[in-house]
Amino acid sequence: MTKEHREQLMSHAREVSFAAGERIFNEGGKADRFWIIHTGTVALDLHVPGRRAAVVETLGAGRLLGWSWLVPPHHWHLGAEASSPVRAYEFDAAAVREMCAKDPVLDHELCTYVSGVLARRLRSARVRLLDLYAPHGAGEVP
Question: What is the C-alpha to C-alpha distance for residues 29 and 38, in angstroms, rounded to an integer?
């Protein structure tokens, strides 16, 4: 993102913190905000009926927490819990979407960034699934 757009986005940020073990959001809940993690770690999890939630990824400093706010119907696809004390920058999703509606270049930059995050997470999930279920070496890329 351009420096101008980063500054514009950060003007809407507020600092928040979460204690270790604190739920940040639950799968299926209203996705009305997102965060950039400053310090600490957050576990993304998936509800498994009759069992504990399955951790699918752990995010640390500098990572985007939450993308469901960008895609209608704006409900969380996963849950999130602080694995350690977390400090983060929180953004109001409606305010950011409104900013993007007024600035198509910002909208494009933000959508490209979030798309990149989604692509990396899908690739990571694919590798984990192959490690768990595929024959040895099936996950290797030529």
Answer: 24
Which residues, including other chains, have CB under 8 Å from residue 139's CB and lie 6 or more apart? 126, 127, 130, 131
Q: Distance between CA atoms of 109 and 70, rounded to whole angstroms?
A: 13
The three-state secondary structure class of 42 is strand
pTM, entire model: 0.86
Helix 93-102 and helix 3-10: axis angle, to 10°?
140
**Residue ranges of domains in the chain:** 3-133
Would you say the C-alpha torsion 33, 111, 27, 31 has a positive or negative sign? positive
Q: Using alpha carbons, select from 39, 100, 105 the residue that is nearest to residue 69.
A: 100
Tens of pLDDT, residue by residue over 86-99, are 999 999 999 999 99
3-133 fold: Jelly Rolls (2.60.120)
